[in-house]
Amino acid sequence: MASVGQTGVVRLFAALQPPDAVLTQLRSAVRPLRTLPGADRLRWTPPPGWHITLAFFGEVPEEKRSALEGRLFRAARRYPAFPLHLAGGGRFGDRVLWVGVQGARRTLVRLAGSAAAAGRREHLGLEERAYHPHLTLARARGRTPADLRPLVTALDDFTGDPWQVTELVLLRSRLPASGVPGEQPRYERVAAWPLAAG
Ligand code: 3AM
After folding, report:
1. Would you call 32 helix, strand, or coil by DSSP?
2. Ligand 1 centre distance from Cα of residue 56 (Å)
3. Which residue's alpha carbon is at the smallest distance from atom 17 of ligand 1?
4. Which protein residues are within 6 Å of ligand 1, measured from CB?
5. Where do the DSSP E strands lie in the chain?
């Protein structure tokens, strides 16, 4: 377990981490994208931190942490292992470039809903926006919009190998010190619980 920060709160989110072999494939697919026009103006997410977010809990006070973890543990064990693969590109407007997630999407969406419900029962301030499975590859810098369409098109033909999701992971997000240009949050795995139904 990670130590609790000085202020007694940690930024936490539930996620899935694709296996290394899949991340290596994705890394190869993304490499040529980074040479396309405009790609150097984006902030590319570092491969070691690549993840599929299930639910973002925000700043979690120390006293709620073990209850949240207990709820996530119990949620995870209600699900069977299920297959996913990465495929195709997409974007959120002109700000976020992502690779899509295919396979047992209904199970994935239900698991994300259960992770969000765990947070809500601890009265953590989760946003109500619809869940859209994705793995974020790059973000526009600051307020500058980016034309992400050519990058999305370049990912059209990408399909990664399927893998079996066997655990729900709790990640900690450490924000960069303010004022450091281009620096990104760092993610740290703090816990993982097996999917154990079936
Ligand atoms: O890596 P992705 O894009 O899946 O966008 C943030 C990132 O997701 C998301 O949580 C992940 C780790 O930071 N996130 C950050 N703030 C958020 C918020 N207030 C948020 N998701 C929902 N509400």
Report:
1. helix
2. 6
3. 56
4. 13, 53, 56, 58, 127, 136, 173
5. 9-16, 42-44, 52-61, 82-92, 96-103, 134-140, 163-165, 167-174, 186-194
196: pLDDT strictly greater than 60: yes
For a ligand 1 pocket test, name from 10, 12, 56 the mutation site with the most ligand atoms within 8 angstroms of its C-beta. 56
**In the block, residue with structure tokens 């960069």:** 176
Average pLDDT, the chain: 93
Global pTM reads: 0.93
Residue nearest to atom 13 of ligand 1 (CA): 173
**Which residues make beta-bridge pairs with 14?**
55, 170
Task: Convert the pLDDT of each residue in 147-181 to its tens digit.
Answer: 999 999 999 999 999 999 999 999 999 988 776 76
Distance from Cα 142 to the centre of ligand 1, integer Å: 16
- The SS3 assignment for 49 reads helix
In the numeric block, the tokens 């980016």 are attached to 146
Who's near 80: CB < 8 A, 6+ residues apart? 107, 195, 197, 198
pLDDT digits (tens, 9 = 90+) for 42-78: 999 999 999 999 999 999 999 999 999 999 999 999 9
Question: How far is the centre of ligand 1, averaged over its atoms, from the C-alpha of 76 (Å)?
Answer: 20
Mean pLDDT of 9-35: 97
